[in-house]
Amino acid sequence: MKKCILSILAISTMFVASAQKINYKVGLMTALPANVTTTHVAAGSTMLEASTTLGKSSKYQATLNTGYVRLSVDGEAKISQIPVLVGARYSVNPNWYFGGCVGVTIPTKKSYGNTEFGYSPYIGYQKGHISVDGRYYLSGLQTPTNTMSLVFSYSL
Fold this sequence. Notes:
The chain is mainly β. The protein is built from one helix and eight strands; from the N terminus they run αββββββββ. Strand 6 (116-127) and strand 7 form a beta hairpin. The longest helix has 17 residues, at 2-18.
């Protein structure tokens, strides 16, 4: 786990050091369970996504995501977590894009489990400053948090 966290910190440092122009997004997320063993509903915000173009082409971008997610599991237990993810995005055309992120999910309380690896492939559509992403998120806290989510965000 320490190697994973150190890798994310190293990538984040390279991201900030090599960035020519950083674009920011803030948004809201809603999620439903992707596995049938538990019923949980998530709500939260993506808080912040930073992205920058890679190389000379504006089609490739590096991303850094963080946020706060609160899960209601089986109508009772509430689990809060903070995902910290780095990833890449490819723009198919000026509006459509897809990508993926990997990183860690940090529980806000020790009783929710340990910091664990997570990943999130996604596809999205952007028109002007508004974007909508369809995301699949997988993390393995005490209660697995496999979710399908919609993220509505605004580019600053």
